[in-house]
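Many introductory courses stop at the sequence. We go one step further.
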Amino acid sequence: MIAMDAAQRIKPVDGDVFVLPAGASIEDAEHLAEAIQAAKPGVRAVVVMGDLEHLDQAAMGRAGWYRR
């Protein structure tokens, strides 16, 4: 159960990325995705579970993830 004092109001827009803690379940992610669609039908957002890092092209290339 979520503590109501921990809840926040969101206004999702296209391109938003929502990050859930690493311990979140698939069901938690699905519930968030459904809530995002209920808040703003048709919005295109991403739900990520776990830590999220921003990598530049050089870092992705070193990791073998980026190819032109």
